[in-house]
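My main concern about presentation is that the manuscript never shows what a single data entry looks like. An entry of this sort, consisting of the sequence and the corresponding backbone structure tokens, reads as follows:
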Amino acid sequence: MNRIGLIVVLACAAPAHAASSLLTGSFVHVGYSANDEQLPAAQLPLFLDELQDLGNDTIILGQTRATRAGVGCASGVQDFEWIAGFPGKLGTVLDAAAARGMKVVVGTTYSSGQCGAFWQGRNATAVAQDAAQALAQLGQQYGSHPAFAGWYITDEPAQASADRAPFYRAIVTALKGSTPSRPVMVAPYLASSSVDPASVANAAAAFRTATGVDVQIWQDGIGAASHARLFQWDRPGHSTEEYFQALSATLGADGLWADIELFNHGSPLFMDTGNGLSGAYRPASVQRINQQLWSARSAGKRVAWLNQYHMSEVVGPGQGHVEAPRMMNTYRGLYGLGASYIVDPVQTTYSYSVAPDANYPDGTGHELFDRRVGDPRNPMDAGWVGVHGNVAVTIDLGQRRQVDWIGLHTMTRPAWGILTPTSVEVMCAEPGTPAVKIGALSAPFTQAGLSASTEEEYVLGNVAPLAAQCRTLELRVANGSWTFLSEIEMAAEQ
């Protein structure tokens, strides 16, 4: 069923600290108001240590100011306020980063959350004034700090449209006035996969000329956008790889960063199932992240949205993202960052208690380990294996090995009768001995709650290390509907 052999792992053995093709930075969400503190100062040192251990040297603060609640479109600087803890907290962040040899890109004033046409009229004037006053003072106070690496204009310019250029030009002028040597960055996003990549790149170049923005951090859209494509062959349209290559050729690698989305795709992206979020906007498959990194290899730097929720043991679980430790430790394992990846795409074997359906077969006998994730927007994508009803997947590791983290990549498509299972028992056995339960992979939602979704992926995983020694693993999937499986990921801590 697979149309390709093995997907390249970017840096299986080399440490990420020396591998520029891996993630080396992350956006950081600090809050939306004077009463909202998403990353308390007490968590900051541990979180930065965690980022550094993962090979990161840069953080991007999403915003330091925002429109006051209920204002809508601002009419003047009085309509903005500091995010909780700022501006003083910026000194704390900069000092902590500098102590670790890290850099900080400082977010500006967030207005688009309340003002749809933020680049027009009084709101545009107010944001520019705020940059010239409050943010300029911030630059004067902290601009010479060794960790201060530039500015990030929080309001997103969509596809770097020409009609929005005056808004960004005014802010860039204000920021450069206080910190002339510091770069200014924005984060555009791709709105379609049918637009010619060359035209997107030309628009990006024109936007740079018109605004003075130094670095464009293009969002890859793999989690958020229904049109985004990892591969050229899975659906009609252009892949993210093609767009990044065109952007890099036009802007230069130094003028282009890639914003790698670490979360699952789902439509709708945020959905209340009655017991919390669905599978969307949850920590994704690490093999999918590997593919995203490969697709964005032409960019000068790759940064993540959003480590603190999706790939952090320090912050993620406390914010309801219980899958974050699984993703973080599996990422460590795949790239040799203090853990090991215990699945060999060829040598590790497995079998099914119930054979996959002939329409969705495991054509190679290695599809669950081949490092090619299925497209959650396309049930007919070659990366999916389809089984109906309860099934057990038995995995032979070849020898007794430490097993700590397991991830099972699945999809939901209610119109097709495909639903992510909510329960998977993990059994462990030595040859010739009865299997014993060592844990479970669970979802934070019910199957009934998924009925409002049109398409979705979710990685079932354990929330705490299994700490088991096993030769044979058995994953017992309980599901009365179709289960579509893609990758099984496993890692051991060191």
Summary: Residues 73 and 237 are 36 Å apart (CA to CA). The chain has nine helices and 22 strands. The chain has two domains: 16-339, 341-493.
